Each structure stands twice: as C-alpha cells, then as structure tokens.
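Extended Data, panel c. Modelled sequence:
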Amino acid sequence: MEKRYNLPVAIALVVGTVIGSGIFFKAEAVLTKTGGNLSVGILAFIIMGVVMIISAYTFGIVSGHYEGVDGLVGFAKASCGKNFSYYIGWFMAIIYYPSLVSVLSWLPARYFGVLMGWDDAVVGGRTMMLAGVFMVVTYAMNALAPKLAGKFAVSTTIIKLIPLFLMAIVGTIVGLTNGMTQFNFSHVVTEMPFSTGLFGAIVALAFAFEGWICATSIGSELKDSKRNLPRALLVGTVIVAIVYVIYYIGLAGAVESSVMMEGGEAGAKMAFQNIFGQVGGALIFVFVVISCWGTCNGLTMAVTRAMYDLAADGENEKLACFKNVDKSTGMPTNSAVFGLLMSALWLLYFYGGAIMEGFGPFKFDSSELPIITLYALYIPIYIALMKEKTLPTFKRTVMPVLAILCSLFMVFAAIYSHKMNVVWYLIVFVVVEAIGAFFKGKKA
C-alpha cells in the first residue's frame, strides 16, 4: 500500500472514529448509574480513558511489530494464527458490527423523536420504524453508492464535533459563572454504593470510548508507521479522553443533575437549550442527530464488508458466495445484504430484549457486552507480543502487562455490573462461534 498518510492525519482518524454518538447516549446513562454523583462519573470517564489509552498504545506497538498488517483480524492472524483470526472475524461479522449498527440506527431515530417532542421517543413504534428506515437507507447508501457514503462519513465527522466542543467550552464557562457546576458537584441525587455506580458507569462508557481499533487499519498506508501509529493512537485517545471529561463537566453546568436524570432521553436537548436558547439549542441538537447517523454510517461501512473480508481471507467453499463484487458499484453485494439481515435481527432483539424486556430473563445489553468481548479477545494478542524477544522491555513486557490488566478489569466490571445477563450473552456468543466452526471447514 502507498505511504500516503502522515501523523496529523492518523491522529485525526483516531479522534474521528472514537468520538461519535456514544458520548451523547452514554453521558446521561453515567449520570443515572452513579445516582447523579458527578465525582464518581468523572472518575469513570478517567478510568475508561486510561484503559483506552493503554490498550490503543499497545496495539500501536503490535502494529509496528507486524508492519504491513492492518486491523484487528490481521493482527490476530499474524500473532496467534489463522484459526484465532477466523473466529474473531466471525464474531465481528455476526455479533459485534451488526449489534452496534442496530443500536446506532436506533439512536438517531431516538434523538429525532426527542427533537420533535415525541413522548415515546425511546420505545415508541414510530421510533423503531424510523430506526428501520435509518438502517435501510444507510445500507442502501453504502451498498449502492459507496463514494457517497464516504463523503457522508467525512462531513459527519466534522459535524459531530460541533455540539461537543460548544457544550464543553460554553457549558463549563456558564456553569462556573452561575454556580450550577458547583451545585451539581456538591449534591448527589440518589445515594448508591460506590462500586455499583463506578463499575456500571465504566461498562456503559465502553460504548462511547470504542472505535480506536479501526484506526489501526491504515498502518500499511502510514508514513513511518512503526513510530507514528503508536504516537497517533496515544495522542488521539488522550484528546478524546480530555474532550469527553470536559463535555461531561459542561453538561453539569447546563442543568441540575436531578432535572437531567428526570428528563431521560430529552436531558441532552434540555441542556443545550438551557445554554444556547430554544432555537440555538434545537439547531445544535440537529447536529447531534446527524452525528448519530454518521456513526451508524461508519459501522455500516464495516459490516457491509465483514463477510466479504472473512470469505476472501479463506478458501472455504461454504463462504465463497460472499466473495462476489458488483462491477458497477465495486461493493460485495451478498456481504452487504447479509450484514443488513444480521443488523435487522439485532435491532429486533435490542427492541424486544434490551428495551421492552420481552424475552423474560434472556436479555442483555447489546450496546455494551460485545465491546467488552473485544477486550477479552485482545488478551491472546498481548500475550503473543510478550513472546517477541526482539522488542525492548517496555514494549515487550510493561505495556502488554498493563493492557492485559486493563482487559481483565473491563471483563470484571462487566460481570459485576451485568451479573446474570453476562451468562445469557455468553450462550449467544458460544452458539454463534459454534455455527462459525461449521462454516469454517478444514481450509479456513
């Protein structure tokens, strides 16, 4: 691949892929899970930021060591072998990408409902119908007009930074001036055990801090990637962590925590309108809706290609049908259709299980647990890195050990927070991987 990107571009890519709809979605969740305790919420942001920074920097080391290899599946193959990389690829294609696309299709619909003043913006039938429209339109754009999807991704990357920076800066200044920030820090809405609030908030934030792994896909196209990719991952993730913390503080300066929590999904809109007025706040909230849709588009770009990448990497005839590429669009049609089907099924589960709790005890949060799974799957790659004797001690021992501890911490936090729901999710995970073993055959 041509060495076309420099360090600033790589840093921008890291920032752009991490920052998205998650911060709007999960900031209010952190407030709820901590009972309105801003100190605990900020601590959760800092811990999750440290976990992201350590994990991303360690993958920068992995990328530098396996120069010319790109992406998580490529690193898994180079470090742990083809079998391990296949199962990661299968997980990404069946669970990770489509489950997140389903949530990210619901988010712009949800916030559009908030913008329009719907009283059932979270669980209403029109919200779910609109989520289906967002999903189908986004898939059609990616499958039939991939260049348009690319331009949409670039434009929404710029748009989604606007409300974040405005609230982070203006909200903080206003809150410090009128005393709202101090009030919210000194008043806890609902007292709850420290560990319950902290671990619940950390797991919720995994969704907002996800995406940095996608930036490793340009390693072979980055100038001096051995030095620049670790730097880009480090600097980019530090920027994200700082922006997120300041944004959260900015929200605290916009509205009382108790009012924000009572407002639920409308809390973010309320905060923007309190700072920028009814019209200005509504206009900025339009950017939030577009931002959520842009993040949905980014994940859709990945899921439309997921089965194609899996099929192209192997020699299995059972997956050969996903290798076809449409000559007019240059897109893998069957892979895109399969991705849409899987995303629709996950949207059905997300609505019926996670929102409506209609599946009895069999329910889990599909916006969080698949992300935590990635942290567990990183561990074998870190262990393989520790076996590379050519690397200096810091890169071969210190960072991988810290990264493993971060991954184990995230797994523990998920188990502590979600409890029995983790078991139901693991059943789904095992069944999906068992199906993957059937399609793997002997040659994959």
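Residues 7-440 form a domain with the Amino acid/polyamine transporter I fold (CATH 1.20.1740.10). This feature is highlighted in the accompanying rendering.
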